[in-house]
Protein: Copper resistance protein CopC
Organism: Pseudomonas extremaustralis
Amino acid sequence: MHGSEGKDALHSTPEEDPRPKLMPKVMGSLAIVGLMVGLMIGRLTTPDPVELQQVETMQDGVRVWFSREPKLHGEHIDGTVALLFGAQGKSAGGQLKVNDKDVNWRVRKTDAGLLLNLVAARPLRGEWKGEEADGRWRLEVHLQEE
């Protein structure tokens, strides 16, 4: 019986290949390059966030300007009007008159976006309508007493 020692290269065990194994390195490099290209394409195709540009007071409400149309959720809560915008911007506040009575408004940042609260000493009802104007998005909130 013969052993596996290399006598005259007449044995069943093949010689070890001296060349380096490049296939795993090539596949790993391709995977990393593909991931990076995909991340760059995703970053380029992601739209800019909606930005609150300004808040103006009107005779019976407020006018809010955005860079483009935001996601909007509005409610009447215990006599106040609350609007939640899917947008970014700065906090602000002010006062306006509805039927010669004061109404306080405040924009503040939340986890879900920006929250606009309209509060008065008496219950309020609000109607809002948005439309595109001057290449921006305008939302008008008209208030009335309940």
About this structure: Helices lie at 23-45. The beta strands are 52-57, 61-66, 71-77, 80-86, 92-98, 101-110, 113-120, 124-133, 136-145.
